[in-house]
Amino acid sequence: MITTKELRNKFIDYFKSKSHTHQPSSSLIPFGDETLLFTNAGMVQFKDVFLGVEKKDFSRAVTVQKCLRAGGKHNDLDNVGYTARHHTFFEMLGNFSFGDYFKKEAISFAWEFLTKEINLPIEKLWVTIYASDDEAFDIWHKHIGLSKERIIRIGSSDNFWSMGDTGPCGPCTEIFYDHGRHIAGGLPGTLEEDGDRYIEIWNIVFMQYNRHADGSITELPKPSVDTGMGLERIAAVLQDVNSNYEIDLFQALIGKVQQVINTSYVNSPSLKVVADHIRSCAFLIADGVLPSNESRGYVLRRIIRRAIRHGHKLGAKEIFFYKLVEELVNQMGEAYPELINKKGLIEKTLIKEEELFLKTVENGIKIFDAEIQNIKDNIISGDVAFKLYDTYGFPLDLTADMAKEKGLKVDEEAFQKQMQQQKQRSKEAGKFNVDYNDVISSQTKTEFRGYSTLIENSKVIEIYKNGESIQNIGSSNDTVMLVLNKTPFYAESGGQVGDKGILEGVGLEFIVEDVQKSGQTILHIGKLVKGYLSIGDEITARVDNKIRIATAANHSATHLLHKTLKIILGNHVEQKGSLVDAKRLRFDFIHGQAISRQQIQEIETLINAQIRANFLVSIIETTQERAKAMGAEALFGEKYGDIVRVVSMGDFSIELCGGTHVNRTGDIGLFKIISESGIAAGVRRIEAITADRALKSILEAENMLFDIKNSLKANDSNLLSKLYSLQEQLKTQEKLIFKLKKDLLSGSGNAIKESKYGDITLVIASIDNVDIKTLREKIDDYKTKNNKVIVVLSTVISEKVQFVVGVSKSITFLIKAGDIAKHLSEHIDGKGGGRPDMAQGGGSNSKNIEIALEQIKEFILEKIN
């Protein structure tokens, strides 16, 4: 039996023998393509090549592409585990022609591989073609020799392929394998085609067209070929099994699931779900996606949580999901080294996410149980479901499952409306982010000269105001955009902000406040403060030298920081984002925990050592292949051309980078970290300053320390001991104050009165200038001494009302503390709420508190009587 690993290699070797260049799989994140959430086909990395936008130094390629279908248009998540062939993650075998061979060769290669290389019986194979594709029909019949009966014409719903709503598309031919009469199902195009007997194994797309946003179709520059064959499907055929989950790779993973969970289940769909999901989760994390509540991170979180829930259905009693990573690495690590390199990160991320989810479930169940006590018509409102999701991270499908168990339903339509409103709010919040590709439609290619000079004589080619092209402008306070034929100004890119400076001409002065890119056009954004400017005018462009130098120092320091983090924290560190300007640098990176003070000092020490070493910063342009051979670090998320710019700082750091840099590391001067924080699950942020700003920060800290020592009459040797002594004195005094407040509350005479109503004690009082913590302590005392008591205590501090409500658990079926708090807060212009047995709130209308307490007394008596 051929293994999945052997089949993967056999496919690559066959097409390499046919002059195809083997290209590694691209990331699951389709960088530079906003139309896709995830890479879902082999051709995604070649989309720009098919469009004629990008050129490669080869015209034939073979790949084994990582693909994911769990979000957006292509979403198989809900089917996974319940069918024989649905997966979130799968591998797509593909061969491609970029204006090289076309239909005849593509069909011939596929047929030869299937029938000669892996020896599939010809009588088991059927093909479909696009209904009007007579050329493909003739190739199959006359050239390959397939009988007419085995060539089926199909309409556009199946045999005209497109990657999405826009992009490359064209007719296709598909090859089907017949699993035999013992399997239900009919031929493609028949009423029984949805059965499992005839399974599509290879799709060959003839890329002839490009579909635009308006639905129109135009010819591509050169006809090309895109093919795809699911590795799992063809492995199932060769291993003589009808389900992808029965192939060797999945059987190993399923066996590991059974072992880790110690389950007796053998055929449960949950086994398939967990085995499938560990692949998608591990590869997503390896490609830089981390769990979150939005976009790709939310899809990852949803897959992880679905796997955990199915694990618990199998009987998992403890955290288990991360334990499957090792077996996955054993099965797929050789083909995908990123699994080996990121194994630790994957495991840590899964552990944290499973711990978080279990905590979320625990908290969410409490809120769920409290909310369903007040529902009507056995329907959980969309507001409640959204509150559980938005505030507590409780997924809708879990809310629906729990509701179903209690004979309830969720108003999912109302929930979705809330989701849409939230998305709209997010959209509004981000409306000031400008996409300059939408603002202008320039075709000008600006020549950038800023690596070698900060001053350049140039010519004005285009002028834009409010997105409209104009011929000339006069001095005003209006912001406009200028396009020059050549410029020394660096446009914002790769985390580095655009240059600032001035454009000068005869009688004119233009202040450049920002520089951006739109395609290959560089936009100089600013104001004409003097004179008159027209298209065609000659000007001198001057970059602000001081700002450029400071920005370059911070950018070079970012490279040193990136390398240093890998050395001190580990190779799992991966850049997630950066911002570099003249004032500071900001660096976001993958790391699972806060950085200790000692580690921060180690980072600063190592970076400043590289600065003192005064390494030469060398910059060369070379091919991607040579850059990789040099060991250059390619930043995650960046899309590079065939020729790249390599920035080296001695032997310490080597990265691909298009930004501006210092000449020697000594020019950075000094490096100082000013903050370290977490910005998302598994993502940390460091902010730092360099040169004069770093020195100024250190001097300010020294001055502050000097002032502290003076005020405490301390010196270097006894400063800490004096501070510790002050802290102890403060703690002692705080305890004394708390005791005095408590004594005051206990001895407040007639301020607190107890009333009996049947066997229930009611206590309502307002005491001035007592903190909320003391009120809570007093309520706990009442509840400890009396198992049927309702207590409402309020205080006024700085004209603001604060109150606490306590209700013995034994009588919460009569009245809930949260309801009392909500009712009371309405009378004091505030908010309140909480649990059935304990709640609190506050308000701004302190003058109304006595009346409010009288009204709350009536409210309580009405409920308990």
CATH third-level topology of the largest domain: BirA Bifunctional Protein, domain 2
Quickly give the structural class: alpha+beta
Number of strands: 37
Oligomer: single chain
In CATH's first tier, which class of the largest domain applies? Alpha Beta
Please tell me the CATH architecture of the largest domain by its name: 2-Layer Sandwich
Strand content: 25-35%
Number of domain units: 6
Shape: globular
Low-confidence stretches: 429-433
Please explain how this structure is put together.
Its cofactor is Zn(2+). Residues 2-700 form the Alanyl-transfer RNA synthetases family profile domain. One of its GO terms (molecular function) is alanine-tRNA ligase activity. α8 packs across α12, α13 (382-392) packs across α15 (412-429) and α17 (545-569) packs across α18. The chain is an alpha+beta fold. The chain folds into six domains: 4-244, Bira Bifunctional Protein, Domain 2 (BirA Bifunctional Protein, domain 2, 2-Layer Sandwich), CATH 3.30.930.10; 247-367, no CATH class; 375-429, no CATH class; 436-543, Elongation Factor Tu (Ef-tu), domain 3 (Beta Barrel); 548-699, 2-Layer Sandwich (Threonyl-tRNA Synthetase, Chain A, domain 2); 749-864, Diaminopimelate Epimerase, Chain A, domain 1, CATH 3.10.310. The protein is globular, with a radius of gyration of 34 Å. Helix content is 38%, strand content 26%. The protein is built from 24 helices and 37 strands. Strands 1, 2, 5, 6, 7, 8, 9, 10 and 11 form a nine-stranded mixed β-sheet that branches. A six-stranded antiparallel barrel has the order 15-18-22-21-20-24. A six-stranded mixed β-sheet has the order 32-33-34-35-37-36, sandwiched between helices.
